[in-house]
Structure formats: structure tokens, C-alpha cells
Amino acid sequence: MPLSFSRNPMYGYLILLTVCSTGGLQCWRTLFDNFAVHGVGLDGHHMGILQSVREIPGFLALVVTYVLLIIKEHHLAALSIMVMGAGIFFTGLLPSFSGLILTTVVMSFGFHYYETCCQSLTLQYFDRKLAPMAFAGQQRWSSLANILVGVIIFVIAPFLDYTAMFILFGTIIIGCGIWAFTRNPEKPDMMPQKKSMVIRKRYWLYYCLTFMAGARRQIFIAFAVFLLVQKFGFTIREVTLLFLLNNGINFFISPLIGKAIVRFGERKVLSLEYLALIAIFIAYATVESRWVAALLYILDHIFFGFSMGIKTYFQKISDPSDIAPSAAVGFTINHIAAVVLPVVGGLLWMVDYRIPFLAGAALSLVSLVLVQQIRIRSKIT
User: How many CA atoms does the CB half-sphere of 334 hold within 13 Å?
Assistant: First the structure.
């Protein structure tokens, strides 16, 4: 890690909160489905509603712009982690459908508002050369957090029930958020951010790429694992092993992605991502070998990390004062697909499971064409 990172208090501040955010989400994902089914007695209809509800705060991320009128952004980041921790803490204490709707919304608001603040603060506090490495560092520590949470749950699950585990992880996350709220990593000479929603015509490419990235993410989340389980009969242990392998690989590869963006630029890195995704989605639709399908899942997860190039591209074309409000708008655009695609894709899956993946290949092709429009001045400032 470059020496300049150790001199910037914001880096360590965001790493701690990012570990809480990703580790908390991993805990919630690992425990939630089993708790909902075995602890609360919910069925598929309820789970579908809960998954839709979980995406609403992401769609409302633009509200962050107005929250910043009354609170500093680094304080909002810490407060969001506290809110997320509270959502996790109370999940096990409200074992009913309405209770899970409430705690899911609370958890999701905390997670999505933190992610919005994290992106904004990273782009504000790190220059063009360091921002890709800062994002790569966050991804790396996120992977490590996911692995550690998985191992901890595996070890303590025989001794603690769901409620106790939710309380344990929620308490840790709330505690870290409270500690961070008492810190002040900001620089007094930072560019003031606009306190209103910003949508500019010249950011059109960023908006389009952000929407496409959200659509691609939803296809991966909704259908990749489902394919492994339904068609190829992967067990819970095998899926968990794949997940741990993915995070282990990303722990080492994330810094390389950041360096590649600095050296080769966003257009080349994102072009490689979308070329690979076209091939991966087509392969998802045609593969007959379970081991090839597992390899595709791993490659898919690796190339997901390349999307940090969209964020660093925006940093290079935007007005410095537009970063915070534009990050909020970007998250809302990213989650438009989250509201629509799972439902539409599920209907298409019932016709033919290949259709969602071929649609993903088509979306990747559109992204590949769009990314060729990236034009950035070579000078690094």
C-alpha cells in the first residue's frame, strides 16, 4: 500500500466501516434465509417480498444528498453503520413477517447509505492515481471480512441460536459505528459538496454504465447460484466453498485491478470486463458440466471487481463539488434494475432458463459499445 495511504486518516476510517458493512451483510445473508424459514416459518412468497423490500433503500439513495444538509458526510457514514448494526441486532428479536420487513428495511438503509457515502468520500479524498487503489483496498478487506464472518458463523453456530448470533454481530457493528462517529478524519480544505441533487447531461455515459452494471449484478445475484443449485445440484457446502474461494481469490486480485486501472485506464479495463462477461453469460446458457459452471461463477465474481473503473471514470470527468450528490444519484440508477430485473428475469426463466443469461450477454455487449465512448485527458491531477 502506498505510503500516502497511511498518511490519510480517511483510508483507515473507511476500511473499518467497510469491513463492518460487508461483514454485516455477509452475516445477514448467511443467517437470514434459514432463520426466516426455520425460525419464522415463511414461504417463497414472503421471501420474494422481503428481497424486493431490501432493494428499496438502494433505490432511495438519492435522499442522501438532502441528509447531508444536516450532518457531515463522514458522520453519516458512521451513523449508517450503526443503523445497519441495529437492523441486524433486532432481526432475531422480531421473529415475524412484519418484524423481518422492518429489520430488513433498517439494515438495508444503513448498508446502502454507507455504500453511497463510502464511494463519495473515496473519490473526494483520493486523487486519480490513488482512488483505484483505495477502492481495491476496500474490496480486499471486504473479501477478508466475508471469509472471517463465514468461519466465525461456522464455528459458533453449534453453540448459539439465530437470535444470539444476530445480537452478537449487530452489537459489534454498532460499537464500531459509535467509535467511528467520535473520530474526525476529514480535511478542512476539502472542496464543499453541492447540497442538492445533481444530474448533468455530460455525465450521461456514467449514468448508462452505472445502470448496466446494476443490471449485470442482478443477473449474477438472482440466477447464477440458482443455476448451480437447480441444474447442477450444488449442495450448500459446495456453494459455500465456492463463495470462500471467490473471496480468497479477490483478496489477492483486487490490488491488481486497481493497478491495472492506473496503468491502462478505465476504457481498456472495462472493455476487458465486458468482453469476458459476454463469453461468461453465453457459457452460462450453454454449459453442461458442473465444474465448468463453477469456474464460470468464479470468473464472474472476479470480473465484478472491474466495475470500480466506472467510479474512477466519473472522478476524472466530474466537477469536484458534484461527487457526493452524483454518488447518491448513481446508486439510485444502479438499483433501478434491482427493482425490475429479478421479477422479469424470473418469468423468463420459467420459459427457458437460458434467456436471462443471453439477456445478460446482450447487456454486456451494449456496455462494451458504450465504454468505447470513454474519453479522459491523460494528465493526472
Answer: 22
* Whether 213 contacts 310, CB under 8 Å: yes
The answer to whether 24 touches 88, Cβ cutoff 8 Å, is yes
- Per-residue cell: 63: 435522499
CATH 1.20.1250.20 assigned to 3-371: yes
pLDDT of 45 reads 63
Nine-digit cell at 342? 429479478
Q: Which three cell numbers stand for residue 257?
A: 485491478
Whether the CB-CB separation of 111 and 25 falls below 8 Å is answered with yes
| pLDDT at res. 3 | 46
Look at residue 379 in the predicted model and tell me its pLDDT: 47
Q: What is the pLDDT of residue 218?
A: 79
d(Cα 288, Cα 232) in Å, to the nearest integer?
8
The contacts of residue 278 (CB under 8 Å, 6+ apart) are 361, 364, 365, 368
CB 331 within 8 A of CB 62: yes
The CA–CA distances, whole Å, from 39 to 13, 35, 50, 53, 157 equal: 36, 5, 15, 20, 14
CA dihedral over 205, 211, 213, 215, signed as positive or negative: negative
Walk along the chain (381 residues) in steps of 10 and give the mean pLDDT of each run.
63 94 90 79 70 80 84 94 96 91 94 92 87 90 91 87 93 96 84 73 90 84 79 78 87 90 92 94 92 92 89 87 81 78 75 88 94 72 38
Distance of CA 94 to the CA centre of its chain: 26
* Cα–Cα dist 227/232, whole Å: 7
DSSP 68: T
| Predicted local distance difference test score (pLDDT) of residue 180 | 95
Cα gap 354→283, rounded to integer Å:
10
Question: What does the alpha-carbon distance between residue 23 and residue 117 come to, in Å, rounded to a whole number?
Answer: 17
Give the alpha-carbon dihedral of 297, 298, 303, 307, to 10 degrees: 80
Q: What is the pLDDT of residue 109?
A: 94
Helix axes 323-351, 44-59, angle to 10 degrees: 150
Q: What is the 3-state secondary structure (H, E, C) of 80-105?
A: HHHHHHHHHHHHCCCCCHHHHHHHHH
Q: Would you kindly state where each structural domain of the chain is located, as residue ranges?
A: 3-371
